[in-house]
Write a sequence for this structure.
């Protein structure tokens, strides 16, 4: 018996001349290598990718409700071109009112952040009068800010040095705003919890997000 | 005459930079060209061993730079081929004993009297690498079909691209194992070239003969029968501008080879029975 099977094996080997195995370690290596080289070549560190991811979430969640855990951000190379692949599981689309509200909220947040920035710039000039429009947000922003004090101090130093170059100063202002924006999502989360804490609980427990959500909206309204 | 200065580099250690330097240098010298090999791996010199010249070294590159001897005194002639000379690295010093300008100066002097100056670069991307590439106008990046070596090669290729003096960067794929590639367990030549995207100057098969040649201190290009030796001789000819087809590294496929294989299988069977 074993003689026959041996014979069969050797004969089939003789005629087949080694067919390649489909999913061997080579393709794993090639794929891993491509990904790591993409990171090496673009200088996109995991930290920066994470920041990019969170900013994209903030932007997109103004318009649709996302499954933040399952959002997938990847680079893929197609020939010479590098493509940024973003896969976002949408839980549900927001209606117009919600979107408007979210955008408004974001704009207010931006304004507050800008004012905060100005206030930080003009600390000596005591221009804090206007900033009392939304105490809650500012409080939160200040809390966020306190963690980043060394950085903002640095920014101010740089600004003082380069007063003459308007463009650079502007670019730095944008940077500063971007930093503020990083702080913003946390504030939004806090607010969301305060205003619509009930719906979140229900969406977590209910298996049908569409129904439960619509009923929540009604209850809020 | 103004010779060509070629740096042989890799990023990762242990992929065969020094073996490649010794073999290409020997092959070029065998073709009648005047060649100087410079070992820039200060503190970890090995090129002398691969050439079997370790007992002949009196002065090193650091002695030249610190003016304890003349450049000509420090050049050691090869045992077999007077066309080939070695400028050894200092074993007792580290990479900070030399700077890029000094090495460039040495390369500039040597290329006036030689056809080729091959610079054997140390592993890494620090001072030693910067020194080695300083005088070069061409580079050969050595890598193996392994992830870590390819990643480091990619980094080196990126760094070489920032050097204006270096006009040509080519890839030498070392330690290729055709049977592993066939079974899809090793990246193929095409895979590696596709990822690194620089032209290929050589494919060297893994060859146990390299070990014995290192033991003897005699580069494998001197062995007419060895496949790796043949592959290195081809690299030298490509450097000289000839178009040489890459070796077919597949197992023998001819009719006689198949019969031999079958006979060996049958004889094994008989033993079993």
């Amino acid at each position: 018996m074993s003689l026959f099977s041996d014979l069969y094996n050797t004969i089939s080997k003789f005629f087949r001349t080694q067919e390649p195995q489909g999913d061997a370690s080579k393709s794993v290596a090639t794929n891993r290598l491509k990904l790591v080289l993409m990171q090496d070549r673009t200088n996109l560190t995991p930290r920066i990718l994470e920041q990019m991811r969170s900013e994209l979430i903030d932007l997109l969640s103004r318009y649709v409700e996302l499954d933040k855990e399952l959002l997938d951000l990847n680079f893929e190379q197609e020939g010479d071109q590098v493509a940024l692949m973003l896969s976002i599981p949408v839980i549900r689309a927001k209606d117009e009112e919600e979107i408007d509200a979210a955008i408004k909220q974001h704009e207010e947040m931006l304004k507050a952040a800008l004012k905060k920035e100005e206030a930080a710039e003009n600390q000596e000039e005591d221009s804090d009068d206007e900033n009392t429009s939304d105490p809650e947000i500012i409080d939160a922003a200040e809390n966020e800010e306190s963690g980043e004090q060394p950085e903002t101090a640095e920014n101010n130093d740089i600004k003082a040095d380069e007063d003459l170059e308007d463009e650079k100063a502007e670019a730095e202002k944008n940077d500063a705003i971007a930093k503020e924006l990083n702080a913003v999502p946390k504030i939004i989360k806090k607010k969301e919890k305060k205003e619509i804490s009930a719906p979140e609980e229900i969406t977590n427990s209910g298996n049908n997000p569409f129904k439960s959500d619509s009923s929540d909206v009604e209850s809020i309204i | 005459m103004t010779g060509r200065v070629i740096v042989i580099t890799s990023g990762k250690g242990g992929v065969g930079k020094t073996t490649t330097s010794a073999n290409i240098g020997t092959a070029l010298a065998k073709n009648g060209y005047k060649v100087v090999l410079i070992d820039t791996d200060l503190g970890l010199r090995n090129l002398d061993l691969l050439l079997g010249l370790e007992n002949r070294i009196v002065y090193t590159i650091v002695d030249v730079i610190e003016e304890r001897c003349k450049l000509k005194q420090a050049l050691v002639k090869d045992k077999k081929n007077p066309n080939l000379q070695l400028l050894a690295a200092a074993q007792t010093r580290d990479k900070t004993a030399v700077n890029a300008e000094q090495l460039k100066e040495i390369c500039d002097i040597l290329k006036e009297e030689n056809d080729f100056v091959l610079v054997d670069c140390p592993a890494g991307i620090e001072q030693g690498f910067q020194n080695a590439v300083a005088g070069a106008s061409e580079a050969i990046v050595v890598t193996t079909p392994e992830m870590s070596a390819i990643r480091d090669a990619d980094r080196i290729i990126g760094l070489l691209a920032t050097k204006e003096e270096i006009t040509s960067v080519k890839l030498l794929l070392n330690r290729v194992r055709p049977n592993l590639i066939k079974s899809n367990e090793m990246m193929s030549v095409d895979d590696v070239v596709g990822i690194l995207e620089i032209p290929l100057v050589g494919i060297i098969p893994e060859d146990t003969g390299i070990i014995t040649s290192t033991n003897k201190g005699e580069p494998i290009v001197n062995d007419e029968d060895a496949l790796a030796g043949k592959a290195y001789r081809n690299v030298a000819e490509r450097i000289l501008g000839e178009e040489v087809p890459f070796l077919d590294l597949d197992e023998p496929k001819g009719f006689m080879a198949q019969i031999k294989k079958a006979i060996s299988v049958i004889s094994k069977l008989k033993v079993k029975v």
In short: The longest helix of chain A spans residues 166-195.
